[in-house]
Amino acid sequence: xxxxVDICNTIxxxxxxxxxxxxxxxxxxxxxxxxxxxxxPGLSPDFFRTPEGLRLFSEAGPYEGAAxxxxxxxxxxxxxxxxxxxxxESELVTRRWLKEHGFPNGEVVFSEEKGETCLxxxxxxxxxxxxxxxxxxxxxxxxxxxxxxxxxxxxxxxKMDWKMAGLLFGMVVSHxxxxxxxx
Length: 183
Ligand SMILES: [Mg+2]
Prior knowledge:
Layout: E1 2-5, H1 14-23, H2 30-33, H3 51-59, H4 66-75, E2 79-84, H5 91-100, E3 107-110, H6 114-121, E4 125-128, H7 131-139, E5 144-147, E6 158-160, H8 162-174
Parallel strand pairs: 1-2, 1-4, 2-3, 4-5, 5-6
Helix pairs in contact: 3-5, 4-8, 6-7
Protein backbone atom coordinates (compact mmCIF):
# COMPACT_ATOMS: atom_id res chain seq x y z
CA UNK A 1 0.00 0.00 0.00
CA UNK A 2 0.97 3.64 -0.42
CA UNK A 3 1.35 5.44 2.90
CA UNK A 4 1.23 9.25 3.03
CA VAL A 5 3.49 10.79 5.67
CA ASP A 6 3.38 14.40 6.80
CA ILE A 7 6.70 15.91 7.88
CA CYS A 8 6.35 18.87 10.32
CA ASN A 9 5.49 17.67 13.81
CA THR A 10 4.77 14.20 12.44
CA ILE A 11 8.32 13.00 11.79
CA UNK A 12 10.25 16.27 12.40
CA UNK A 13 10.24 18.09 15.74
CA UNK A 14 9.50 21.51 14.31
CA UNK A 15 7.68 22.92 17.34
CA UNK A 16 10.61 22.01 19.59
CA UNK A 17 12.91 23.80 17.16
CA UNK A 18 10.59 26.83 17.10
CA UNK A 19 10.45 26.95 20.89
CA UNK A 20 14.22 26.82 21.03
CA UNK A 21 14.58 29.60 18.45
CA UNK A 22 11.85 31.94 19.68
CA UNK A 23 11.60 31.16 23.40
CA UNK A 24 15.07 29.90 24.17
CA UNK A 25 13.85 26.54 25.46
CA UNK A 26 13.08 23.25 23.78
CA UNK A 27 10.53 22.59 26.52
CA UNK A 28 7.27 23.72 24.89
CA UNK A 29 5.14 25.82 27.28
CA UNK A 30 1.86 24.17 28.24
CA UNK A 31 -0.37 26.82 26.66
CA UNK A 32 1.40 26.49 23.30
CA UNK A 33 1.06 22.71 23.25
CA UNK A 34 -2.64 23.14 22.58
CA UNK A 35 -2.12 25.45 19.57
CA UNK A 36 -1.43 24.13 16.09
CA UNK A 37 -0.03 27.50 14.96
CA UNK A 38 1.85 29.81 17.25
CA UNK A 39 1.58 33.57 17.36
CA UNK A 40 5.04 34.65 18.47
CA PRO A 41 6.92 37.91 17.83
CA GLY A 42 9.08 37.43 14.74
CA LEU A 43 7.34 34.24 13.62
CA SER A 44 5.62 35.53 10.48
CA PRO A 45 3.72 33.28 8.06
CA ASP A 46 6.69 33.69 5.71
CA PHE A 47 9.29 32.66 8.26
CA PHE A 48 9.82 29.26 6.65
CA ARG A 49 10.65 30.87 3.31
CA THR A 50 13.55 32.79 4.85
CA PRO A 51 17.09 31.41 5.11
CA GLU A 52 16.59 31.22 8.86
CA GLY A 53 13.36 29.27 8.50
CA LEU A 54 14.99 26.85 6.08
CA ARG A 55 17.86 26.42 8.51
CA LEU A 56 15.37 25.58 11.23
CA PHE A 57 13.92 22.84 9.00
CA SER A 58 17.36 21.40 8.44
CA GLU A 59 18.32 21.52 12.13
CA ALA A 60 15.10 20.08 13.61
CA GLY A 61 15.42 16.63 15.12
CA PRO A 62 13.42 13.58 13.99
CA TYR A 63 10.95 11.75 16.22
CA GLU A 64 12.61 8.70 17.65
CA GLY A 65 11.45 5.53 15.93
CA ALA A 66 9.88 7.25 12.92
CA ALA A 67 12.56 6.44 10.34
CA UNK A 68 12.92 2.87 11.63
CA UNK A 69 9.17 2.26 11.45
CA UNK A 70 8.85 3.65 7.94
CA UNK A 71 11.88 1.69 6.77
CA UNK A 72 10.30 -1.49 8.11
CA UNK A 73 7.13 -0.78 6.18
CA UNK A 74 9.07 -0.16 2.98
CA UNK A 75 11.06 -3.33 3.62
CA UNK A 76 7.75 -5.19 3.80
CA UNK A 77 6.76 -3.94 0.36
CA UNK A 78 4.82 -0.79 1.18
CA UNK A 79 5.64 2.59 -0.30
CA UNK A 80 5.90 6.01 1.32
CA UNK A 81 5.10 9.44 -0.06
CA UNK A 82 5.88 12.54 2.00
CA UNK A 83 3.03 15.05 1.78
CA UNK A 84 3.91 18.39 3.32
CA UNK A 85 2.46 21.90 3.53
CA UNK A 86 5.98 23.32 3.69
CA UNK A 87 6.80 25.95 1.05
CA UNK A 88 8.23 24.55 -2.15
CA GLU A 89 11.41 26.55 -1.48
CA SER A 90 12.24 23.99 1.19
CA GLU A 91 12.47 21.09 -1.25
CA LEU A 92 16.26 20.68 -1.18
CA VAL A 93 16.51 21.13 2.57
CA THR A 94 13.65 18.69 3.10
CA ARG A 95 15.09 15.98 0.85
CA ARG A 96 18.49 16.31 2.48
CA TRP A 97 16.93 16.12 5.96
CA LEU A 98 15.01 12.93 5.11
CA LYS A 99 18.17 11.32 3.78
CA GLU A 100 20.37 12.48 6.66
CA HIS A 101 17.99 11.02 9.23
CA GLY A 102 17.63 7.68 7.50
CA PHE A 103 14.06 8.00 6.21
CA PRO A 104 13.17 5.71 3.31
CA ASN A 105 13.09 7.05 -0.23
CA GLY A 106 9.80 8.45 -1.38
CA GLU A 107 8.40 11.24 -3.44
CA VAL A 108 8.08 14.60 -1.63
CA VAL A 109 4.84 16.37 -2.53
CA PHE A 110 4.08 19.96 -1.51
CA SER A 111 0.38 20.41 -0.90
CA GLU A 112 -2.03 22.26 1.33
CA GLU A 113 -4.93 20.27 -0.09
CA LYS A 114 -3.93 16.95 1.36
CA GLY A 115 -7.28 15.24 0.81
CA GLU A 116 -7.15 15.86 -2.92
CA THR A 117 -3.48 14.95 -3.08
CA CYS A 118 -4.11 11.65 -1.28
CA LEU A 119 -6.96 10.83 -3.65
CA UNK A 120 -4.94 11.73 -6.76
CA UNK A 121 -2.02 9.59 -5.63
CA UNK A 122 -4.15 6.72 -4.35
CA UNK A 123 -2.74 7.00 -0.85
CA UNK A 124 -4.36 4.39 1.40
CA UNK A 125 -3.30 5.64 4.82
CA UNK A 126 -2.12 9.07 5.93
CA UNK A 127 0.03 9.77 8.98
CA UNK A 128 -0.48 13.37 10.11
CA UNK A 129 -0.44 15.63 13.19
CA UNK A 130 -2.53 18.57 12.06
CA UNK A 131 -6.31 18.39 12.56
CA UNK A 132 -6.94 20.68 9.57
CA UNK A 133 -5.15 18.37 7.14
CA UNK A 134 -6.37 15.23 8.87
CA UNK A 135 -9.94 16.46 8.35
CA UNK A 136 -9.30 16.99 4.62
CA UNK A 137 -8.00 13.45 4.28
CA UNK A 138 -10.78 11.89 6.35
CA UNK A 139 -13.37 13.72 4.29
CA UNK A 140 -12.25 11.97 1.11
CA UNK A 141 -12.57 8.62 2.88
CA UNK A 142 -8.91 7.83 3.54
CA UNK A 143 -7.96 6.67 7.05
CA UNK A 144 -5.64 8.84 9.13
CA UNK A 145 -3.31 7.89 11.96
CA UNK A 146 -2.34 10.89 14.05
CA UNK A 147 0.91 11.45 15.88
CA UNK A 148 -0.30 12.48 19.31
CA UNK A 149 0.05 16.21 20.03
CA UNK A 150 -1.70 18.53 22.50
CA UNK A 151 -3.58 20.31 19.70
CA UNK A 152 -5.05 17.18 18.14
CA UNK A 153 -6.34 15.52 21.31
CA UNK A 154 -9.98 16.16 20.34
CA UNK A 155 -9.71 15.07 16.73
CA UNK A 156 -11.44 11.74 16.11
CA UNK A 157 -8.67 9.55 14.70
CA UNK A 158 -6.38 6.80 15.94
CA LYS A 159 -3.57 8.46 17.89
CA MET A 160 -0.08 7.00 17.91
CA ASP A 161 3.46 7.77 18.81
CA TRP A 162 6.33 6.36 16.80
CA LYS A 163 7.46 3.91 19.44
CA MET A 164 3.99 2.43 19.64
CA ALA A 165 3.77 2.58 15.85
CA GLY A 166 6.93 0.52 15.54
CA LEU A 167 5.25 -2.17 17.56
CA LEU A 168 1.93 -1.90 15.77
CA PHE A 169 3.34 -1.84 12.25
CA GLY A 170 5.93 -4.43 13.23
CA MET A 171 3.18 -6.86 14.14
CA VAL A 172 1.38 -6.13 10.90
CA VAL A 173 4.55 -6.73 8.93
CA SER A 174 5.31 -9.95 10.74
CA HIS A 175 1.77 -11.17 10.06
CA UNK A 176 2.59 -10.87 6.41
CA UNK A 177 0.47 -7.74 5.95
CA UNK A 178 -2.82 -9.53 6.43
CA UNK A 179 -3.88 -6.96 8.98
CA UNK A 180 -5.33 -3.44 9.04
CA UNK A 181 -2.83 -2.16 6.52
CA UNK A 182 -4.43 -4.14 3.74
CA UNK A 183 -7.91 -2.82 4.30
MG1 LIG B 1 2.42 18.50 10.31
